[in-house]
From TrEMBL:
It comes from Onishia taeanensis. This is UDP-glucose 6-dehydrogenase. Substrate binds at residues 31-35, 39, 103. The keyword Oxidoreductase applies. Coiled coil: none annotated.
């Protein structure tokens, strides 16, 4: 049930649904906020295992298959929004990435949305400048040394000289940000927020183009 709520609440269509169902104190908002998909060692494996079990007994696993499908789509949404902001031309661009782990307070990158974003960026001939409080060694273990991946010491170094910022993990230290400062660091004033950390108006008032998840494309503003 939890991964079903997580998945569907993170699609654009279910933003209003999340607000409604989350107001029920028996459910709450903790697992039903829009975002760029789930990962880790449990949710993906559990959904896939249940779907396989259903298939083995000829039971239609429509809901489980939909959960898996929507989660895959949510993971691709960050690159899609970034690609839209750059009119499909990301070659040679440097993209700052905040957050590599699939969730805060871990170094676990299994099925993390950050991996989908990075691999799509590399396929588009872009360069990644990334920071995570815990998952730097794990990222290096997975991807090794490569020219298009620079792991930096902190979030400030990640955005210096970058063309845009993408946020994949909702670490607490990412939530406090001077938007005027950020705009001055970026070559292009583009922020793709996969975890909806910031008030849209405050970001837009600083002159940044802000692409969130589940809030509609109207929030992108020059």
């Amino acid at each position: 049930m939890r991964h079903t709520l997580l998945t569907f609440s993170r699609s654009d269509f279910f933003h209003a649904f999340s607000l409604g169902i989350g107001s029920d104190p028996r459910i709450g908002y903790h697992f039903i906020y829009p975002g760029c998909g789930y990962g880790g060692s449990c949710f993906p494996k559990d959904v896939q295992a249940l779907a396989r079990t259903a298939s083995e007994v000829d039971y239609p696993a429509d809901l489980l298959n939909a959960v898996e499908s929507v989660n895959r789509r949510q993971k691709s949404t960050l690159f899609a929004k970034l690609n839209q902001a750059f009119d499909g031309d990301l070659a040679g661009k440097t993209i700052a990435l905040w957050g590599l782990a699939f969730k805060p307070n871990t170094d676990d990158m299994r099925d993390a949305p950050s991996r989908d974003v990075m691999e799509a960026l590399w396929a588009a001939s872009a360069r990644v400048q990334a920071y995570d409080p815990e998952a730097m060694k794990e990222c290096r273990r997975i991807y090794g040394e490569r020219d298009d991946l620079v792991l930096v010491a902190d979030r400030i170094q990640a955005v210096k000289g970058a063309d845009a910022l993408v946020i994949c993990t909702e670490w607490k230290e990412f939530r406090i940000l001077d938007f005027d400062w950020l705009k001055a660091q970026l070559a292009m004033p583009v922020v793709v927020d996969g975890r909806n950390l910031f008030p849209p108006k405050a970001v837009k008032d600083a002159g940044l183009m802000y692409y969130a998840v589940g809030r509609g494309d109207s929030l992108a503003s020059a």
